[in-house]
Write a structure and sequence with these properties.
CATH class of one domain: Mainly Alpha
Organism: Candidatus Thiodictyon syntrophicum
Keywords: Signal, TPR repeat
Pfam families: TPR_16, TPR_19, TPR_21, TPR_8
CATH topology of one domain: Serine Threonine Protein Phosphatase 5, Tetratricopeptide repeat
Protein name: Ancillary SecYEG translocon subunit/Cell division coordinator CpoB TPR domain-containing protein
Radius of gyration: 43 Å
Distance between the termini: 114 Å
CATH superfamily of one domain: Tetratricopeptide repeat domain
InterPro entries: PEP-CTERM_TPR_PrsT, SecYEG/CpoB_TPR, TPR-like_helical_dom_sf, TPR_rpt
Strand content: under 5%
């Protein structure tokens, strides 16, 4: 409703003023005279026709344009008024004739800031205009949600013109804005005692009746206005609004047809048509009408509110967020907008932003608001506060089954299954036919492993909803959980018989096929689902699971990529794909997927956690630390997050920060074994064996039958190079848990403490039972070589080399050396294979070069030996081999220099005696 209606008397006065001005372009015409007469009679439609006819004949008729603008202002069409005023400005009309009308047109469109700027730019106004200007300034301030400032302007206007009805009306609007409706009604009634025929006050009083649901009383006042002004557009629109409130949509449509006859394309008329379609849930038609309103009046809050609700219903959540945020910014007290906005943000998995909207209004709020806040906390992972608010909602409305169902969801998430079952049973017993409660009750029994109770609940639902596939599907799930696959299959097939389009049953039948190891049949079922629903998430993830069972990584990635692209609002496919790449060690691809996912879901905590893991493993450790810090600010009590954050800091060589994070994880979860192990490991890495030993002893005390504490103790002694002491806890660990890692740790400790025979015994026993453990076999070969059992070492090495498709160059090198010592002709070929795999390793180059030299390929052998010597000039055996080769090729002086260096650098090496003898022979 426009702020200050222009009366017919004012329009006529303007016509007289224009007629008195010099200049033919703004002289009154016969058409404008007729328009004035129609205005006096209250016939706005006829006046409009006359003025439009005048402009059709003479587009430069400034008088007609200004009168038409004022007529548009009278009916509340600010956009049309602005257009006509701008045309008059282009025709050179003096500013004093249009400047305040222009301000009023801006206010009618919600352009309050522009209106204030126009008023400020106008400067000092004539005394006759000051009261109206102050009133308009009050209207703009009220539109800017500044009621105190508006009151000051209206009071100033009343002081300038004590008889100003418009200033008095402004004060009434301030009273309404401040929310004290009783005081506002009282003030309106007092105003009507002074001005009983004031149209706008009558309309305001009618609106108060309508706001209270007193639509009949409102209609009576609208009719009173229309008896005096049959073409009063606002009264017609008010009648239509009241009729909509009375559910008389046919009557409302007729009333809106009448408004079209007065003025076409009025935004309020279009808005009310949108409201009618909205009530009938005709979302598209309603949205089309409301979009038209916002095109004409971009700041129209009611249209934005309804469009926000419509877009939410259509799943366009980001668009809904934009509209509803605008509404709340302008009217923070609008609870409906807050609730729908919160629901949209919950659906977008942005719980923090949902909480931000609800918390300012939740005290004393209705149960639905409490339930929404509880759901938001639940999604954020704060189950305690989520449960608290849902409990309050149920206490406020104990007979609402839907609220009990929501509370049960929180209890289930918090692991309180029995309490959840009680709430769900209460919801079912209320008899409000909340299917979700029945479904959750069955699922809760299944979670509790009470399969018979689940069957009882689902079969009861079968009787109540025999024509729905859902009960049969639930019974199938219960049978499946019991391991009765034939009965489960029968129920799933029954669900499909009731509703062939119920793809959930088809998915569950695919699960039965997988359980029976018929992967091809499972794939056919998933593909059946995808024929009718190519984007079905469950079917696409099912194909990914089949690919994993078949060890087909390409098919797995293809299925997850397809699921991710087809379901852009869901995080699960992206999370699974990231996890897959991480498990394969393809950290760059994991990081790429996680980054893309985090861009789409910036507030989703599982996504951010996966991104942080990928950043840690993908080499972006500083970014990972920032990501974990962001997560921990929201969830400082999460032990897993603290543990993962510690891992990132450890990788960043921040041992102190890592230790603090692991300790925090243990404070929050004292039985967190991984955190205890990590604390011990990072402490060892930081040179803090005391802390590591404390962790080891704590684990041994809490888990005496676990190897982990003893392994850590052994590692502490090994870090101190006290291998004899290390062997004892490693032996205890191996007794408790026979694994390859512990076997190798024990063997290494025994070997390092001088008991190589004991190390061989441990690995021989392990290798006998685990012939495919190539790491242990390789270590066994090395120790056999050390204790002088070359033939056995050769056998072990050959077994490893023949089994290892990747070929380990160090093992090949050891095998070549043993072949060489045994005089085996295969030595040269194996040495070359090792050299080709790792030509920069000096020990491998030395072996290959020496074997070539001793095989008579002296020059080639020397060249490779010199390559090894350049890489490792302090290694005595390599130096000795080079000296021998140089001597053989007649380069005695060079040989002498190298021999002297060997004896100087390593006088006690195994090669020292041979080097001294050769040096003496060469006369050095």
């Amino acid at each position: 409703m426009a702020s200050g209606r222009i009366s017919a008397r004012t329009l006529t006065a303007t016509l007289a003023l224009l007629a008195g001005l010099a200049g033919t372009s703004i002289l009154a015409s016969e058409a404008t005279d007729k328009a004035s007469t129609f205005l006096e009679q209250g016939d706005l439609r006829a006046a409009t026709i006359e003025l439009k006819n005048a402009l059709q004949k003479n587009p430069n008729d400034a008088t007609a344009r200004l009168l038409l603008a004022r007529l548009y202002l009278r009916i509340g069409n600010g956009a049309a008024a602005e257009k006509e005023i701008r045309s008059a400005i282009d025709l050179g009309v003096e500013a004093s004739l249009w400047r305040l009308d222009f301000v009023e047109a801006l206010i009618a469109q919600g352009k309050f800031d522009d209106a204030v700027q126009r008023l400020e730019a106008a400067g000092e106004l004539p005394a006759a205009d000051q009261a109206r200007a102050l009133t308009l300034r009050g209207d703009a301030a009220l539109g800017q949600n500044k009621p105190d400032e508006a009151r000051e302007h209206y009071q100033a206007a009343s002081a300038a013109d004590p008889g100003s009805e418009r200033a008095g009306l402004g004060l009434l609007r301030v009273a309404l804005k401040e929310g004290d409706q009783a005081a506002a009604i009282k003030a309106t009634d007092a105003f009507l005692e002074r001005f009983p025929n004031n149209t706008e006050a009558l309309l305001m009083r009618a609106e108060y009746h309508r706001a209270e649901g007193e639509n009949a009383a409102a209609l009576a006042l609208f009719d009173r206005v229309l008896s005096a002004e049959p073409q009063n557009l606002v009264a017609h629109l008010g009648r239509a609004t009241a009729l909509i409130g009375m559910k008389d949509t046919d009557g409302a449509r007729k009333e809106l047809t009448a408004t079209d006859q007065i003025q076409k394309d009025v935004p309020m008329t279009i808005y009310l048509r949108g409201v009618i379609e909205f009530q009938d849930k005709n979302w598209k038609q309603a949205g089309d009408y409301l979009d038209r309103v916002l095109t004409a009046v971009p700041g129209h809050l009611q249209s934005q509110l309804l469009l926000g609700i419509i877009r939410y219903s259509e799943g366009e959540l980001e668009t809904a967020d934009q509209y509803l945020s605008n509404v709340i910014k302008a009217t923070p007290e609008n609870l409906q907008a807050r609730k729908v906005l919160a629901a949209a943000r919950i659906k977008m998995r942005e719980p923090a932003r949902a909480i931000e909207v609800l918390e300012p209004v939740v005290q004393g709020a209705d149960p639905q608001t409490m339930a929404l806040l509880g759901s938001a906390y639940m999604l954020q992972g704060d189950l305690e506060r989520g449960q608290e608010w849902l409990n309050r909602a149920v206490e406020s409305a104990p007979d609402v089954a839907a609220l009990r169902t929501q509370l049960a969801l929180t209890l289930l998430a918090g692991g309180q299954t029995n309490k959840a079952i009680n709430e769900l049973q209460s919801a079912v017993d209320l008899g409000q036919d909340i299917l979700q409660a029945d479904v959750l009750l069955v699922l809760a029994h299944l979670k509790n492993k009470d399969f018979d109770a689940a069957l009882e609940a689902s079969k009861g639902l079968e009787q109540r909803r025999a024509q729905s596939p859902i009960p049969y599907n639930l019974t199938g799930l219960a049978y499946m959980a019991k391991g009765d696959l034939p009965s489960a299959r029968e129920r799933f097939e029954k669900a499909l018989q009731v509703d062939p389009a119920f793809v959930t049953a088809e998915i569950n039948l695919a699960r039965i096929e997988v359980a029976g190891k018929d992967l091809d049949a499972a794939q056919r079922r998933y593909e059946t689902v995808l024929k009718t629903n190519p984007k079905h998430l469950g079917a696409l993830l099912g194909l990914a699971a089949l690919a994993e069972l078949r060890n087909d990584p390409e098919a797995l990635v293809a299925a997850l990529e397809r699921a991710k692209d087809a379901n852009p609002t869901v995080t699960q496919p992206g999370l699974l794909l990231t996890r897959f790449y991480i498990t394969r060690g393809d950290y760059l691809k994991a990081l790429a997927v996680a980054n893309e996912l985090a861009t789409r879901f910036p507030d989703d905590e599982p996504t951010l956690q996966m991104l942080a893991r990928a950043q840690t493993l993908g080499g972006q450790v500083p970014n990972a630390i920032r990501s974990f810090d962001q997560l921990l600010r929201k969830n400082p009590q999460d032990p897993q997050l603290n543990y993962l954050a510690g891992g990132a800091r450890w990788k960043d060589q921040d041992h102190t920060g890592a230790q603090a994070a692991f300790r925090r994880a243990l404070e929050l979860k004292p039985d967190f074994v991984d955190a205890q192990v990590a604390l011990a490991s990072v402490s060892l890495d930081a040179g803090d064996p005391e802390t590591a030993m404390q962790s080891a002893k704590a684990l041994q005390k809490s888990y005496p039958k676990s190897a982990v504490g003893y392994r850590i103790e052994g590692s502490v002694f090994a870090a101190k190079r006290d291998f004899k002491s290390a062997a004892t806890p490693f032996k205890k660990a191996f007794e408790l848990e026979k694994t390859s890692t512990i076997a190798r740790q024990l063997a290494d400790a025994l070997n390092q403490s001088g008991n190589t025979a004991g190390a061989v015994a441990v690995l021989t026993g392990w290798a006998k039972d685990n012939p495919k453990d190539l790491e242990a076999q390789a270590m066994l070969g090395l120790f056999l070589q050390q204790v002088g059992r070359p033939k056995e070492a050769i056998t072990v090495y050959e077994g490893v080399v023949n089994s290892d498709a990747k070929k380990n160059p160090l093992l090949l090198n050891n095998l070549a050396w043993l072949y060489h010592k045994e005089g085996n002709a295969r030595a040269q070929a194996v040495a070359k294979e090792a050299y080709d795999l790792a030509p920069s390793r000096p020990e491998i180059a030395d072996t290959y070069g020496w074997i070539l030299f001793t095989a008579g390929k002296k020059t080639e052998g020397l060249s490779i030996l010199q390559q090894a010597y350049l890489a490792f000039p302090t290694q005595s055996e390599i130096g000795y081999h080079v000296a021998v080769a140089l001597d053989a090729l007649g380069r005695k002086d060079e040989a002498v220099q190298i021999l002297r260096k060997v004896l100087r650098d390593n006088p006690n090496s195994d090669q020292a005696a041979d080097a001294a003898a050769l040096l003496k022979k060469l006369g050095g």
